[in-house]
Amino acid sequence: MSEGKVSVAIIGTGDIGRGWAALCVSAGWPVALFDTAPHAAENATAEIAERAERLLTLDRAVAYEVEDGIKSLRVARSLLQACESADWIIESVHEDLITKQKLFEQFESAAPYAKVVTSSSSALHPKDIAARCRRPDRMLIAHPLNPPELIPLVELVPGPQTDGMTLEVLKAWLRLLHRLPVTIKKPVPGFVAGRIAAAVWREAIDLVLTGVIDVDDLDRAVSVGPALGWAAAGPHLTYHLAAGDKGVKGFMQGLLGTFENLWANLPTWSKLEPDQQKQLIGAIEKTYQGKLEQIRKSRDRRLAGILKGMEGARQG
Fold it and tell me: Where in the chain is the domain with CATH 3.40.50.720?
């Protein structure tokens, strides 16, 4: 590892792998890509460079570091070539336990000197992924949100045999990348961000399908309503602050009954039937048809602006 830079191997070049790569490249870190799908890694390089350069226009990166990172980006011809000199292996293949287990078994010989080996899994248990590993001490899950190069949260899920120093090393590296790691103490399906997102999305879907609100108004109501407040303070702190001097105890004394009535009335279904899927897909596609690229750029600008504002406020 050169001074201040971590050598990274990214295995799997789907959207999450590309996001991880863009983030590391934007910091000037050397990145090697490998994918078993023919030409997948080669085809990913242009988008990775574009996403890293976009961080410049959003004031989320420094020009010389992006330039260094793009120059150092390479496509490996084999897993061994990708991993042999890497400090950090980032696995970002599709969410299949057997595939991941086989890969992590291969890392034993392909990446003997790597300090940290992580999976980007959004739901699998680290103990299960590392089941075939002789060195589960250096393995854990590092789950980013999409797009990884912009949203700073990374959920860290250590396995039962993950070394404490491995966790601390990864936290330090993530902070160098201006990420905000949180540690999940007890693995649960979907971890934390995924479970909260799933719960909120189920309510959002139900409100659309039952005709309460249209898709665009629903997205607007969430993004500039609770999501905006939670971005600044999170749900518990938001309600703690809302009651002023009375704090969360006063808030619950005054409004817990209202929330309990709402909870009793929330949908509890766990499956979308085919006709409901069709209805939802049609509503979303009709709302945003022909606008996705423009909306994506606008979304990125808003995210960058929110982050810049939050960072400025925190420094103040």
Answer: 8-183
